## 1
Amino acid sequence: MSDLESLLISDDAPAKMTERDMLDRLNARYGSFNGNGFRYARAEHVRVTAGFDARRTCDYMALDLWPGGMGRNRTGPMLHGHEVKVSRSDWLTELREPEKAEAFRRYCDYWWLVVSDVSIVRVGELPDGWGLIAASGGSARIVARAPRNEAVEPMPRDLQATFARAVTKTTLRLERLGNDRALEYIAERMNLPPKGGTDG
């Protein structure tokens, strides 16, 4: 058996990253907190409509809750949309079906491709208007900054509903896991009792 073959079947071989791994990194990336509360509303798997027949899902959305300046310079809260890919074949499928991302991208101020490895995307493949975030160590870093979408469209009510639902589910998941610093901060600020505790 060759060294390469033994590495491929070894228990010590590095595990392939999953979408869940990348979503966890995005939750950490957008898990900021300031004196007023959460910096971002975080939402995994946002469906395009509220019904059972929704055919499209955005992997991750993060709404920046900070106003972004003062007075005439105020830009308002910015919505970041993310498409997560953990294999080259998935990325090539995405490139063949641009309408999938466009169902969400037009409502987002910034649109990001998020990959487990930068080699998934070849030079010249990143569509106009997309940024690139890649796994780096235990986190995710910006490789190519997304340009702001100056023609962003208002989010329709159906998408607002599914975004709100996804924020709730994502927050509950993070709270149950018990390792999200932003949630710990807000619980402290709200004087909530510790998990399993009572109000007295």
Note: The chain has a mean pLDDT of 86.
## 2
Amino acid sequence: MSQTPEAAGARANRALQSWTPRPQATTVVYAIAHAGSGAAAWNPVASALPEDLELRAIRLPGRENRIGSAPHTSVAAAADEVARVIAADTAGHGKPVLLIGSCFGAMVSLAAMGVIPSGVPVRALLSVRQPVPAHVTPASGASPGSMSAAELRTWLREYQLTPAALLDDDAVYEFFEPLLRADLSMTDGYAFAGSPLEVPVFLLRTAAPEESLDPGAWEHVTSARVRVHDVAADGDPLTEAPTALAEAIAEIATLVLPAATPAPRQT
């Protein structure tokens, strides 16, 4: 099957991953995963989306096929790259855009929205597992970079900042710990200080554990509406319930793009 030039360009760019190119899609969803993760975490979500939505995951340096590139050392640097990647890719397809991030990725997504060119047609920002637009500070006052491996692991588990499957496997945790530490260290003390956005923000809330989301904590980041959107999932929707997360993304797309209602999936 032939591919459109924009799909081919997205696949060729190491910062972007598109597993299911959909030339007829009406909207492109750009996605950033949690700390320590690359693009691969979004593959099941991409497959579960309706045909009118195409997901393109953003891969930051230091992971997967960018393993040889040094990770960013600040949220601002990561946000600048994300904004450039989305702007360049959008110039090729011209379609409306949704931007979604999970945990660390939600923070980077928000920061990217603050610097993304005004001509990029972003219609909404979706935030997963990021209850406030700032980094979670450890109760001990210690930064992630200064914690021991055991302390960092405990802290990640307590605040549910990393999938349990990664934390429960010693070998997997040891492999990802340096990148986790790098990602979390660069966000330490970060808080969004840009001009208010002009797009709605959707805070995705899972059923269990029940998440206490405060839309009021987000009101200063956007002049548009902040909404809590429930996801029919327990735990981390990205790693544990990708189909439910895909359904939530599709539902939000119908709210912000009523003329581009995703078609139902065929069974």
Note: Confidence is low (pLDDT under 50) at residues 5-12, 260-267.
## 3
Amino acid sequence: MKSNSDSTSRNADGQSRASVALLPEPAQLFQAIAGLYTSTSPLVQWARELSDLHAGLIPFEFDIAPQHRVIAFTQYRTEIERVVGEVNLWAVGHVPRTKSARKHTHSLGEVISHIAKIYAEVWWTVLHSADAETRHQAWVHLSEAREGYAEMVNEIRAKQLQLPTGWQGVRRETA
């Protein structure tokens, strides 16, 4: 029996319906990545952190990084993996996993990290490319990422999509 003090309804899987609402809308996610949206939601903070980390990796892609590039590159990648893991850990308790739903190939942390990477690369391209067509294609790519995220959130809310919980991947063992 549900008490009157429990204002959160539950779905058939026993998960809070309010938890699905915790996923940021596409505009909110992109504002968070850009540092223009503030919230107490850890997802907003992690999205911004991932954006900054991916922006920090761009010099390595163009080989204009400092002398100790392998060490610095590894530190950026390690931090990205850490934040992705934090997002995935949060998602386990907040994003519904509908058993009969189609399975997505990427965890929430991987999705947000990928969008943050695209955002950083698009802005770098827009700011550094003299070619109008290249800048246009960059904006189109960012728009496609936004649309894909919006569809993913809608499918999760409609119980048609289930995200994997994530995996840290192959790691070097440290003694």
Note: The chain is about 60% helix and 0% strand.
